[in-house]
Amino acid sequence: MTHAAYHITEETLLSYAAGMLAEAPAVAVAAHLPGCARCRSAVAALEIVGGTLLDEIAPAPMSSNALSLVLARL
Length: 74
Ligand SMILES: [Zn+2]
Prior knowledge:
The protein has 74 residues and is mainly alpha-helical. The protein has 4 helices and no strands.
């Protein structure tokens, strides 16, 4: 498959890149990407943007019991 007959919407690609897409549509996107350079490069660009945004968020101080709270939820 070298040419896709349709493309994933930008909103769906953004959710996919952010890991926020539900399982069924995520599987559909994952199946589409190997055959579509256009959507692959869009996801790559969105992942770079998402990573940059994370880098620019100021680190928030964590409470002293944050680790035990996380461990309690495991
Ligand atoms: Zn596509």
